[in-house]
Amino acid sequence: MKIRIATRGSKLSLIQTQKVEKFLLKKGFDVEVIKVTTKADLFLNEPLQKLGKGVFEKEVNRLVMEGNADIAVHSMKDLTSQLDPGLEVIATLKRDSPYDALVADSELFKLEKGSIIGTSSLRRKNIISFFRSDINVADIRGNIDTRLSKVKTSQYAGIIIAHASLQRLNIETKYFVFSPYDFTPEVNQGIIAIVSRKDNIEMKKVLSEIDDKETHSIAEAERTASNIIGGGCNSPFGIFFEFYDKEFHGIATFSDSKKKITVETWSRENEKISGEKLGKTLLRQMKNEGIIL
């Protein structure tokens, strides 16, 4: 039996896909990897906000919906909060580092005044400006190698990137990992997700063994909180859960260039209730501080 995997054609996406491919090959399946060029790959000079929602996923998931691929592999943070009604996340791999990292010669608080930091994320831009209003934040797009080269050639003093991306690409460079209290990560950052059709029972059975149940629960808690808040890819919110001592520990942050609001919750309830609790706690605190979206 051959299983067709749809994925973006970037180096990072293919490395993520290889983890799923190796599992399937070990189980005796034939595998075909279908590389897809997305809107985000074609318009590298456009800000992510201008490209709209789902720019990293729509074309990839379309192959699955139309029956031209059996599964799609994604960085889960790129998935919109609401998938196509016919699709679902059938498995998540064990989470890699969920944190943000600054690739630079110095820590954020030690960078020279007027330094330029590159990121295309509104969340990261706002947090940087909150902590360091005396440095400049500029958009930066392109693959990771391209972005890193701009640091090496001093076009930027540093860039903010997902720590998991540096690890997966095995990049050796100087960087500093942020605390989730300072830089609360994007929803589902560090998680690789496998998407399939809801009616494809066979794929669910095949991939159930690779599904990390704790990661899957954490992912659902974060997405539930995001839906309550109204966040999503490239929003000014960070949402993070971890499972610690049989409890869901959640951190959520709203930030703009002048204010940063961070809340924390603990819950022994299920992922849905825990996610709702975190989302509502942040909204309540924002309202208390005069911020209503």
Description:
The chain has 293 residues and is an alpha/beta fold. It has a domain at 100-177: D-Maltodextrin-Binding Protein, domain 2 (3-Layer(aba) Sandwich), CATH 3.40.190.10. Helices cover 34% and strands 26% of the residues. It has 10 helices and 13 strands. It has helices at residues 11-26, 39-42, 48-51, 58-65, 122-131, 144-152, 163-168, 201-207, 213-229, 271-288, and strands at residues 2-8, 30-36, 71-75, 87-92, 100-104, 116-118, 136-138, 158-162, 175-177, 192-197, 237-244, 247-255, 260-267. A 5-stranded mixed beta sheet has the order 2-1-3-10-4, sandwiched between helices. A 5-stranded mixed beta sheet has the order 7-6-8-5-9, with helices on both faces. The longest helix is centred in the C-terminal third of the chain and has 18 residues, at 271-288. The N and C termini lie far apart (50 Å).
Mean pLDDT: 92
**How are helices and strands ordered from N to C?**
EHEHHHEEEEHEHEHEEHHEEEH
CATH fourth-tier homologous superfamily of the domain at 100-177: Periplasmic binding protein-like II
C-alpha end-to-end distance: 50 Å
The gyration radius over C-alpha positions equals: 19 Å
CATH fold-level name of the domain at 100-177: D-Maltodextrin-Binding Protein, domain 2
The helical percent reads 25-40%
Quote the beta fraction.
25-35%
Cross-sheet strand order for the largest sheet: 2-1-3-10-4
Specify the overall morphology: globular
Report low-confidence residues grouped into runs of 5 or more: none
Classified by CATH, the class of the domain at 100-177 is: Alpha Beta
The CATH architecture term of the domain at 100-177 is 3-Layer(aba) Sandwich
The number of helical elements comes to 10
The class by helix and strand makeup works out as alpha/beta
Number of strands: 13
- Largest sheet geometry: 5 strands, mixed
EC number: 2.5.1.61
Enzyme class: transferase
Family: Belongs to the HMBS family.
GO molecular function: hydroxymethylbilane synthase activity
